[in-house]
Design brief:
alpha/beta, Glutaredoxin, 2 domains, six-stranded mixed beta sheet, two-stranded antiparallel sheet, 7 helices, 36% helix
Length: 220
């Protein structure tokens, strides 16, 4: 089942909490919840998404918000691992494209480390090994969850979409449970849940406008 805006937010499927005390959505009711979803090998997550989440944590932590970090993996499964996440959280060390991009922008300290720490709890999405046979039904389920307007596509465009999705799914080694349950489109992504535990919105990419929706939920 895919989580829907306006309905009860499902608990995060976490394989391991690597920083801070374990928690989950149902344990944080009464607070507004922001879940910042990232990949270890995602430069934009560390240039924009996570700094924005840290800013919100620092500004509203004592005003009724819970900020959680969730590392996931929908690609680069050799880099977006629990081991690399643990290294990141404990030492600040970054790898892969994150390292190359942040080094290029002068955003590292001591050669290969983040210039900041994540002050909130951080967990690893539950990854499930893909072993079942790929069917037409699974391809269409993926399209329905991720391309809501696909029914307006021309027959030619729909065929191309199906071929791209099939190629992607055949190359996918794991399913990231929370990432897929919330029908996220990429990283960085943000999940916003109100004080009653209702999913209010999800955002793909970091546009610097997350603070407004957070403030509105805090006022409710």
């Amino acid at each position: 089942m895919v989580a829907k805006i306006g309905t009860k937010a499902p608990n995060l499927e976490v394989s391991s909490w690597v920083h801070g005390k374990p928690t989950n959505i149902d344990e944080e009711k009464g607070n507004v919840i922001l879940v910042e979803v990232f990949q270890v090998n995602c430069p934009g997550c560390f240039l924009y998404g996570i700094p924005e989440a840290i800013n919100i944590y620092k500004k509203y932590n004592d005003k009724g918000i819970t900020v959680l970090g969730l590392a996931t993996a929908f690609e680069d499964f050799d880099k977006n691992t629990l081991e690399n996440l643990q290294k990141l959280v404990t030492t600040g060390e970054v790898i892969g494209e994150t390292y190359r991009t942040l080094a290029q922008y002068g955003q590292l300290k001591d050669g290969n480390k983040l210039p900041y720490e994540m002050p909130f709890q951080v967990g690893m999405d539950l990854l499930k090994k893909e072993s079942s046979q790929l069917t037409d039904g699974k391809i269409m389920d993926f399209i329905e969850a991720n391309v809501p307007d696909f029914r307006s596509y021309t027959e030619k465009d729909l065929k191309m979409l199906v071929e791209r999705v099939e190629q992607y799914l055949r190359s996918k080694e794991y399913s990231a449970k929370t990432f897929e349950e919330y029908a996220l489109r990429g990283t960085p992504s943000s999940i916003l849940i109100d004080r009653k535990g209702v999913l209010r919105s999800t955002f793909f990419g970091s546009n610097g406008f997350l603070e407004g929706p957070v403030e509105e939920l805090l006022k409710e």
